[in-house]
Structures are given as C-alpha cells and as structure tokens.
Specification:
Oligomer: single chain
Radius of gyration: 25 Å
Number of strands: 7
Order of helices and strands: EHEEEEEEHH
Number of helices: 3
Largest sheet: 5 strands, mixed
Strand content: 25-35%
C-alpha cells in the first residue's frame, strides 16, 4: 500500500493529513491476502513524515494444539517515521539518518506501508495461537483432533519415575 506524500513534504511542520485504509494485501508476507482496514494520520515532521495508525485485519493461522486453521483477528498499532530519500523541491538525494532499518519515502515521494505492516503483523501474531481457549488438541497416540470427539486409544501409561509422588498424594 502506497501513499503519495509530495504535497505534505512541501507543507509546514506539524501539518496532519488523515487517510482511511481499506485494502486487500498480503499482511504477513506468506502469500495469503486479507482485508486491512483502519484510520491513519500522517504528520509532517522536521525530518520526514510520522505515520500513526490503527489497522485491523484477520489472518489465517494454524492452532498450536490441534493444527486446525482458524481466522485470527489482529490489531496493528503502527507509529513510524518515514524519511525522504530525495528533496521534494530540488530532486537532490538526501542523506538518511543513522538509524538501522529506518523506513524511507522513495524518489517518487511514495510512502510504502508494506514493510511496516508486515513487521507489526508478525509482532501481533500470538506465539502459541489457539483456535479457542479450551482447545483439546490432538491424541498423542493416534493423532485424532479431540475437539471433534474422543478417540478409542487407551491413555498412555504413567512414567514410573512419578510413582513416589503419586503415593504421597500428587497426581500427574
């Protein structure tokens, strides 16, 4: 997703422009597309454009217990400053700040949100995504999804090293 900020780069510091985002894009970089919606504001700073926005989307994830795919809602709260690579008036190349991984505005004065959305989406995805809080997972013997019903497997035998704890009242 790109936004042309040429006019805003010519504006006074502190100038704010609001944009509505309603676009289909590959949010996580895995090739699957989803709707990305929200409101963003672009503020002219002394060095570039400050991007602030709250974007909402759903991504398809695999449950960490039962491995079933499910839609996971994400809210991305993005706040990043974008730096121009070319002076908007003269066209002279500008030096970038010494910050590693800073976001840039290209030579056509387009601010590309794709990398920021990818980074914030990857940070927003839960480490152990669950299709639901009470997900039963898979049977360790036959692999059946226990959310769909019980299997006919016998429960695994307890590790004999836990026998002493069981004798004093602790259960496994």
């Amino acid at each position: 997703m790109q936004i042309n900020v040429a006019q805003q780069l010519r504006s006074a510091i502190g100038t704010v422009k609001e944009h509505d985002v309603d676009v289909v894009m590959d949010v996580t970089g895995d090739g699957n597309t989803s709707w990305l919606q929200g409101k963003v504001s672009l503020t002219r700073t002394d060095r570039g454009i400050l991007f602030n926005g709250v974007l909402k989307t759903d991504v398809e994830l695999a449950c960490s217990r039962c491995l079933s795919p499910f839609p996971c809602p994400l809210t991305l709260k993005i706040a990043e400053e974008y730096f121009p690579t070319v002076d908007v008036v003269s066209g002279v190349p500008l030096p970038l700040p010494d910050e590693f991984g800073c976001f840039t505005i290209d030579e056509n004065h387009e601010l590309d949100l794709t990398d920021a959305v990818h980074q914030y989406a990857l940070l927003a995805i839960p480490m152990k995504p669950l299709c639901r809080q009470d997900c039963a997972g898979l049977c360790p013997v036959c692999g059946q999804n226990l959310n769909l019903g019980e299997c006919n497997c016998l429960p695994p035998e307890a590790d004999p090293r836990w026998a002493k704890l069981k004798q004093i009242g602790f259960s496994q």
